[in-house]
Amino acid sequence: MQLLPEGITVLLERPAMLPPKGVKSDVTNRSNTQTSIVIYSAVCLGIASIFMLVRLYTKIRIVRKVDITDSQTLHQSTLCIRLPSLLLLKANSQWLNIEQILFACTIVLVKIAILLQYLVIFAPNKTVNPFMYIGARILIVAIVTCYATITIVNNVSCSPRERIWNPLIRTGHCMPNARKLGSYFLQGLNIVSDLMILLLPATSIWRLRIPLKKKIGITFQLAVGTL
Predict the structure, then answer these.
(1) Which of 30, 66, 71, 127 gives a 20 to 30 Å CA spacing to 165?
(2) How does the record say this protein sits in the membrane (predicted)?
């Protein structure tokens, strides 16, 4: 039986169910999960901000040269600040949907910044390192295309679009299993793209005329950065 809007409003204003015996319901105080999100986000953003400021200071005051990777870093930082705020609001699933879109944008910018940094270090032009020069560009195009496709499919999977976050809407339709398949594909894309970004500079590093210990150290640092 489909409820009228008035009936839905009344039901939403009431508790979904009675609390267990011996447990007192408390719907006014903030949950431990929200507190944890605030603490973890503040710590992680604080550490990331310190490293970002050190990088910018080095590029501007010491190296005295900035490039496109620096602008990418600034864009990423602004998006990363927004994500924790949306996590606190995701009790309303509409905010969760917005968070998913911003998450995809942030991940794409991070991966592009890493690949652009590879080009600056290993392949400033095609003749120096053709494999890196072409491979990094192919990865950038593939990453942007795949993430954009998944994001678009997830956001047009239901008509009207509000059905994505509002289960009370009975009109319209959703593509069967579109969001679930999109989620699986996104997880796979994250893993594969991270591995490709990690392995791409391996050839360039191991061709360097430096001791084996330093090669292993550089590879380890890139692996940590990719993770």
Answers:
(1) 30
(2) Multi-pass membrane protein
How far is the CA of 58 from the CAs of 69, 88, 119, 221, in angstroms?
A: 14, 34, 19, 19
pLDDT, one tens digit per residue, over 100-138 is 788 888 888 888 888 988 898 888 888 888 889 999 999
| Whether the model pTM is above 0.70 | yes
Nearest to 123 by CA among 141, 139, 137, 109: 137
CA 187 to chain centre: 11
In terms of Cα–Cα distance, which of 177, 185, 173, 178 is closest to 153?
A: 178
Write the CB contacts of 185 (distance below 8 Å, at least 6 apart in sequence). 150
Closest among 153, 227, 161 to 197, alpha carbons compared: 227
Torsion of Cα atoms, 112 then 222 then 103 then 109, to 10°: -20
CA dist 125 and 138 (Å) reads: 15
C-beta neighbour count of 103 within 10 angstroms: 19
Rounded CA separation 11/153 (Å): 32
Please, what is the Cα angle at 147 between 165 and 106, to 5 degrees? 80
Extract the tokens encoding 175: 């593509």
The answer to whether 175 and 211 have CB atoms below 8 angstroms apart is no
Own/partner pairs, 96-104, CB within 8 angstroms, 24+ separation = 96/165, 97/155, 97/164, 97/165, 100/151, 100/154, 101/151, 101/155, 104/147, 104/150, 104/151, 104/186
108 near 115, Cβ under 8 Å?
A: no
> Based on the number of CB atoms within 10 Å of its own CB, is 109 exposed (0-12), middle (13-18) or buried (19 or more)?
buried
